[in-house]
Records
---
Amino acid sequence: MKRKINSVIISLVVCVITLITIVSSISFSSIYEKNEIIELQNECSLVIKGYELDDISYLESIEDSSLRVTLIDLEGNVIFDNQLDESEMENHASREEFKEAKENGYGISKRYSSSLLKTFYYVAYKLDNNIIRVSKVADSTLYILFINLWPLYIVAIVLIICSILLGFLLSKKIVDPINNINLEHPLENNKYKEIEPLLIRIEAQKNELMKENEEVLNASKVRQEFTSNVSHELKTPLHVISGYAELIKEGIVKDSDVKEFGEKIYSEASRMSKLVEDIMKISKLESDKDFEKTQLKLKNIVVAIVDSLMIEADKKNVKFKLSLNDCSISGNYDSIYSLIFNLVDNAIKYNKTNGKITIKLQEVSNNVILSVKDTGIGIPKEDLDRIFERFYRVDKSRSKDSGGTGLGLAIVKHSLIVNNATIKVESELKKGSTFIVTF
C-alpha cells in the first residue's frame, strides 16, 4: 500500500510538471515567434525607407550580417541579395512569403531546418515594381526553451525528490494505524471514519469465529460426555447380564431362582435395547438434513400414542383427560411421533400413583398448541435449563427404576428443531409439570 501511495504522489507531481512544461512551452513559443516577426517587420520597414531614399546602393551598404536582404522582381527573379550571388539563386516565385506579398502587398513565413536546428523567418513587402524581402535566422524554439527553462527542470527534480519523501511520510502515517489494528478489539482502533465499516465487519467476523469456536468446543464436550455416558449406561446392564449369566452357567443358581434371574437378564437386555434405540433416534435426527414433511393430523397421533401407553398408565392407575381439537400441521411423522410419545411416556413414568395426565390440543393465533400436564414429582427450578441434555436425570435412582434411558427429552429437543417448533416447561415440585409445544 505504501508503494501505491508513493507511486500515486510521484505520478501526480510528474503529470503536473509535464502539464506546466507543455503550457509554458506553447505560450513561450507563441510569444517568441511573435516577437521575432515584429522585430523583423521593424527591420524591414527601415530597409524599405533606406531603399526608397538611396535605391540599391543602400541595400549594398547594409553591414548587419544577421540580416539578409533580398530584392526580387515581380516574376520571382532575384535582383539583389546581400549574402549570396544573385546570379546563382533560383527563382523565388514559389516562395510563400513572395506569393502573399505579390497578392496582398505583405507576406510572412518561417521555415525550420532540422539539420541546422534553426528557424528562418521571412517578411516581404511589395513595392512598385519589386518585392523586398528581409529574413533572419534564429535558434529553434525547442533550443530556446531548453536554454531558458532550465530553472524549471531543477524545480521539477526538487519537487520529485520532495514528493518521494512526502509520499513516504504520508503513506507511513496512513498505513501504520491500519497495520497496528488490534484485531482482538477492532473498534478501539477507529482512527479513520472511512475504515469504520471494515472494523465493524472484522468485529462481527471475530465474534462469529469466537461463537463458532465455542460451538465446536461445546460440541466436542457434548460428544465426549455423550460417549462417556453411553459407555456408563451400557456397562451397568452388561455387568448385570454378565453376572447373572455366569451364575447360571456355573450351576450355582437354584432351579427355583432361574426364572427370577432370567427375568432380570431380560429386563436389563430390554433396557439396553431401549437405550440403543434412543441413541439411534438422536443420531438420525442430528445427521439427516432433509426430512420428508407431510400434513399431519395431531389428534390421531396423540390418540394412537395414548392407546399404546395405556398398559403402562394402568400399572400406576394413571388416568388420561383428553381435550383434542382437530388440528393439522406440516411436519415429519416419525419425529413428531417420537416427540409426543416421549412427553406422554415421561408424564406416566414420573407421575404419582393414581395420578392424572391432561393433554390439550388447540389452535391459537395461527399456531397449534399441544400441552401435556401431569400430577407427578415436578422438576426443581435449578434443573429446568438442563432437562433436555442427554442422560440428564433430575432423580437418577427413580429414572432407572422406571426404565428411563435419560434420552427422552433429548429426542424431544431434536424433534422440535426438525419441525421448527418450540417448547415451554412449567413445573412445581411435588405438584407436577406441564410441557407446552408450539408448532
---
Amino acid sequence: MNLLHMKHALEVAKSGSLSKASAVLLIAAPNLSRSIKELESDLGITIFERTQNGMKLTPQGEEFISFAKEILGQIDEVESFYKAGAPKKQKFSISVPRACYISEAFANFSKHLSKEAAEVFYKETNSQRTIHNMRNHDYKLGIIRYAENYDKYFKSMLEEKGFHYELVTEFTYLLIMSSDNPLAKKDDISFNDLTDYIEIAHADPYVPSMPLSKVVKEELPNNIDRRIFIFERASQFDLLSLNPETFMWVSPTPKSLLERYNLVVKKCADNKKVYKDVLIYKKGYKLSKLDRQFIMELCASKRKYLW
C-alpha cells in the first residue's frame, strides 16, 4: 500500500471532490483519480462512491479513512520526534535559465546566508526541465524563459499545472563574442554577417512538448551552418574567449564578466524577437525569508543590467 495514495484519499474525503482535492494537492484530477483506484485495487475495497455531487465515502471507506488518519498521524509524530533535535537548516532551491544577471543575483544572495547550516540548490537548465524540477524534485522557485510569441501557451500551461507566475523582465538577445572577433569592430551587424562564423547554442529545447527540430528552426536563424551545442555555461565562455570565430546570443551581461573573458556584446539590427523571463512557484506556496531575499537581489540585478 502506497502512503502517498493514502494521503490522497484523505484529502478527497476531506474535500468531497476530486477537483477540489487536486487543487490542494497540486495534482491533475485524472492522476488523482488513478491514485484512488490503485489504492482501492490494492486493498480490494471501494472507498468512494462516485456521484454527481462528488465523492462520498462508503462504509468501508469510512473505516479505512479512520485507519488512515491514525497511521498518518503517527508518521507525523515520528518525523517530528526525530527532526526536533536536528539543527534547523537554511533551505533554498531554484531552477533557472542560463543568464548572467540571474547568476550574479544568486552570488549576491549567497552573501546573506547566516552561519547556520544551509542547503542551497541552484540549477541552470531549460524551461521544460525547470517545470519538471519543481513538480518532481521539490525545487521551490523557478525562472523560465520563452519567446514572447509563446506567451499564451506558457501561461495556459502554468495555470493548468498549478503555478503562480510573475514577469521578471523582457529583453532582446544580444550577440557576445571575443574582442578579437572581426565582427567586434562592426557598428551594425546583420544576420548575414554571422553566416561564416560558429554559433554556440544551448543544447536543449526551449519549448516543452515541441520537437527539437521545430524549436531550432523557429528560434535560430537558418543561415548558420556551424553550431556547437553546449549545456554548461562556463565552457561556453571559454569557447567564446579562445575561438574568435565563435559568437552566441545572450541576455545582457555584466561588464566584469566581459572583461574577465575578453568579450564584447553587440546589437544585431535584424534581431527583433522579444523574450520573457518569468518567476514561477506553486500556488499556495508561502515564500520564505531566503526566497524573498533572492527576489530582491534578482530585481536589483535586473535594474542594473536590463533597464
